[in-house]
Prior knowledge:
By secondary structure, the protein is an alpha+beta fold. Among the domains are: 66-108, no CATH class; 159-250, no CATH class; 272-360, no CATH class. It has eleven helices and twelve strands. The chain has helices spanning 60-72, 82-96, 100-108, 112-125, 142-150, 189-192, 253-260, 264-275, 287-314, 324-348, 353-360, and strands spanning 2-12, 22-23, 34-45, 48-57, 132-135, 154-158, 164-166, 186-188, 202-206, 209-220, 224-232, 242-246. The strands form two sheets. Strands 1, 2, 3, 4, 5, 6, 9, 10, 11 and 12 form a ten-stranded mixed sheet that branches. A hairpin with a 2-residue loop joins strand 9 and strand 10. The longest helix has 28 residues, at 287-314. The radius of gyration is 26 Å and the shape is globular.
Amino acid sequence: MAALIIDDTLCEHAGDLFEYVARHYHHAEDRYPLSHNLVTSHYVCGQIRFPVDFLIYRRYEEQTLGRVCQKLLPDRQIPKAKKARQQFHKEVAPLLLLDEEFRAAHEQFKTKITLAKILLQQAIEHNLSFEVVLFDGWYLAQEFVTAIELAEKDWISILKKNRNLEANSFVLKDQDGKVISLPSPHIKVEELVPLIHSTAFRPVQVKDKTYWCFSRNVAIPALGKVRLVISFDNPQLEGNFVILISNRLDWSAELIVQTYLLRWPIETFYQDSKGQLGLDEYRMRTAEAFQKHWCLVFVAYSFLHLHSLELSHQKGLVLPLKSIGEVCRQQGQALVQSLILMVHELLNAGESVDEVFRLLFAKQGVST
């Protein structure tokens, strides 16, 4: 099955001289580093995987409130807490919208959900053949899933544990087969899990890993009817659990889990592109310049992956023979080898050491 994955990553920086740089929330580390927030799409089909497109997310305050408030409301500070900041938006927006600069910036602002919709449309315009869109809970919004379904694609997402389910949309029974009465019209998933008897969980085998899953069709406010899968990684049903939902009401828990695991390559892409290809190590300050850098990283990663697949096919293997890191090191060694051989040939041809160094460092403007 071919999938389009939507996700985002932070490219952190120490200085604030970069265009569009701002403090974005790092949910894994619960902090707000100075960074660029890169929203990306990624394609996976079997062993073929490559980044497709990217868009840069700009915080509303960085694009609108910050500079205009300094001009029109110099004595007011933008609150840092989310709820207080939202209240501040509502309070000052009518006044700020009278300012031409603020109004222009306000109209240009795009949420991450809007950016995800654009990336989806761009993938379709690229004629990429995919059946399902995969994303985490940050992108689970009615606006986005509606856009996916209008494009006649399926989707699977992580569901946050505090999301409400409509209690009258499903029936839950205890170990004796008696219906469990739920006390309110809505129930959070994290409150539902302890009510599910262990016998309702079934082992699901995905490759060499076993998951214990409970699946049911339920209704979620604003999203409607979905297929819910609650998954533990142990038969004791202890520790953390993952909640997946999909618009495919007819899919089994095994198929939903197996398909969502196709999302993993975007995580390895972020690791490899930062660790091996310098995705976040640019020093260019303008948006035009560092977006060109991102494009080059995307292209380099795709070529390296294709090279790894080519080596595998030559040996009759299905899985990539080498990781991106191994291919990078191999290419680096080949480059050094070519350089040494070129210098050797130049010296054998009678070129002086000074001439060779002038040739090597000519573009850097280094003289000997």
